[in-house]
């Protein structure tokens, strides 16, 4: 069994595997502009964040009914559980659905059909984080928050995603203030493609408690010092960074330097159906390619539970952390044959 972990950066729409996309398209009478799942998967060669987002939004057309969202959530939980995920804080993008005529209630009720009982059915506790699309207007974000008020018992927090550059966090000052008033947790993508200043702005203007990605903090030593001092968790997604070309190759990923600097890093999958792996696959990849040792891997797992929004259930956090401490890593596969 893989090391127990929390997944804190996971877009549920990014778990839509090609096979499920085709099954849902058939069920809903939708034509996809690809002959089959293999041809679709072959289109997963991205230049940057925007080229990925174009396909990500296009494929969402197959998600129409509550049952579609329930099936999507169930498929994710099955894969995540098999990779050691014990707790998941799951992003969803309401505006990407309401803009195509799918009601917010359909999305939330559908996801909740499965997430509401996920601990019993899959052994994974879950929470939902509603993300605003930063390339849409601040007014649209505020309307989305207001229309989510009937569902707030199912929503733990708000986040900010989609095309980063040119859409600085401060654009969403009011909606984050309103979310704080409603008692919601706050996170935001920052420093994925955008500059380190967006990370600072997300902290100071939006009052976020975690930074999603945050990779580009490494360009600003004073910011690194602050993130370390304030123990701000960063939800890193190594395989995503390679696929979206924010790092050239995995062996050049700054994760080891970030750990050495004392940053509170976590490892997550972002959009696993598109980027070549789920949470455990990301752990395996950094273990192998970046040669992380057991203590570093255990730290990443510890960090994931310490950064989770579990303050309403500290005994649960303590149980998960105890699982991490008790975990025995299997020995890594040997690279050379017998002498
Ligand atoms: N939406 C889904 N995945 C995303 C990512 N990696 N960055 C920004 N927005 C996203
Ligand atoms: Zn993301």
TrEMBL record:
Catalyses: adenine + H2O + H(+) = hypoxanthine + NH4(+)
Q: Could you say which protein family the record assigns here?
A: Belongs to the metallo-dependent hydrolases superfamily. Adenosine and AMP deaminases family. Adenine deaminase type 2 subfamily.
Q: Which residues bind Zn(2+)?
A: 9, 11, 189, 270
Q: What is this protein called?
A: Adenine deaminase
Binding-site list for substrate:
271
Which keywords label this protein? Hydrolase, Metal-binding, Nucleotide metabolism, Zinc
Q: Please give one Pfam family short name.
A: A_deaminase
Q: How is the cofactor bound?
A: Binds 1 zinc ion per subunit.
Residues of the site described as Important for catalytic activity: 213
Q: Which cofactor does it need?
A: Zn(2+)
**Domain Adenosine deaminase as annotated: residue spans:** 4-317
The active site lies at 192
Give EC number(s), comma-separated: 3.5.4.2
Keyword DNA-binding on entry: no
Q: List where this protein forms a coiled coil.
A: none
Keyword match Plastid: no
| A Gene Ontology molecular function term of the record | hydrolase activity
- Lineage, uppermost ranks: Bacteria, Bacillati, Actinomycetota, Actinomycetes, Mycobacteriales
Purpose of the protein: Catalyzes the hydrolytic deamination of adenine to hypoxanthine. Plays an important role in the purine salvage pathway and in nitrogen catabolism.
What organism is the protein native to? Nocardia albiluteola
